[in-house]
Amino acid sequence: MHPKLDNRIRVFRAEHRMSQSDLAEAIGVSRKTISTIEVGKFVPSTIIALKIADYFNVPVEEVFSLIKDEEETA
Amino acid sequence: MHPKLDNRIRVFRAEHRMSQSDLAEAIGVSRKTISTIEVGKFVPSTIIALKIADYFNVPVEEVFSLIKDEEETA
DNA sequence: CCTTAGAGTAACCTATAGGTGTCATTAAGG
DNA sequence: CCTTAATGACACCTATAGGTTACTCTAAGG
Q: What would be the CATH architecture of the domain defined by B4-60?
């Protein structure tokens, strides 16, 4: 029903040379939250999306993007 | 703990002259979801935030923004 | 070899997102 | 006046976000 959600968190982490724990601490969530979001296990709340994007100083759209159905099955 | 979330959905709806039902239908959620998000009753998922922003052709940050603690208590 | 850091995952739990339906209120129109 | 559209709000329900703790595995270093 809902499209899937792609994320580039690990890329931004790599650029900033920080671990999942570092980012988790920086934005005030658990490491598990960062890990499971990265792996795509669940869709984060808008607050977390804004915090992550804000932390990396990029728009939300650069971190998270909707995967259209065609792309999903591609 | 988490900052609050501000939204300008009703402003964008006004500009596009559409009702909550119209928007709900357009992005594939219930009217109640739009209504409760607008009123600030809960924080939507990143997927819904992206869909709404995408629908109005603006970045997520123009529709949703974090309310910092100082602003909250102001 | 051992230790440590980084990451994935699993079980478990609680809070809440988001669906349903229904009702009350308001504004606009016949 | 009655009807209809738009919105807010309620009860109720299910799925899942996101927390904790702990285990596993890998890579890097001593």
A: Orthogonal Bundle (1.10)
